Amino acid sequence: MPIIVDKEKKKKYLIAIATDVFSKKGFHATKMSEIAEAAGVAKGTLYEYFSTKEDLFLAIYDEWITEYEKTIVQRFMQAEDALERTNAIRTSAIDFYASHRNHAPLILEFWAHALRSNDKRFLEKIKSLQNNLMTKGESITQEMVQSGFFHAIDPQSFTLLESGISDGIFLSWVLNGGRFSLEKAYEFRQSLIGIGLLSEDARSLLGNKLHQKLSEGFLEDEHP
Hints:
Number of strands: 0
Strand content: under 5%
CATH superfamily of the largest domain: Tetracycline Repressor, domain 2
Largest sheet: none
CATH class of the largest domain: Mainly Alpha
Order of helices and strands: HHHHHHHHHH
Radius of gyration: 20 Å
Shape: elongated
Number of helices: 10
């Protein structure tokens, strides 16, 4: 282990090592002693930073989600209209999932653990992110409807469905070994939804482009 004096840097180092170990063995199969050994520290040192294995597991997810939400906020603030804000959320999700491709099973395990664990912090963390995204999604949808770009639709229902579709694409991507373009899959979803919601004026502007994306699909560039 490199000599790290700064406690925050050392904590980040331990989280990084734990992420790799958890990703290879799974949360439940991993022992704290194995993480300590991989990090080159005494087990007692690891417990100085994380009281339990669940604390360490939560710290990993918390670090990921904090960075994810920071990225969304930055891109959201730079966006000039609802379309750009929609793209900000889409590209942030793509970048997040793509950057954690090697840790994908760990993300799925966190979701499953949140539903099983008596520690409510896990589910609360997931719901906090979902509520954040729901608030932004509902705001964008209302703006699109009010501007005449979308037909009238219940923003809350639409945004909740969108969230489920987004997570479903990620799950399919993982189960298929990343054999299709995540970015094109998200664009396909956006085009499909757009075709159904666009007002007549908006359809005349974007219809041809969206139909082309739908006809092309997102599986043509499969790679091993």
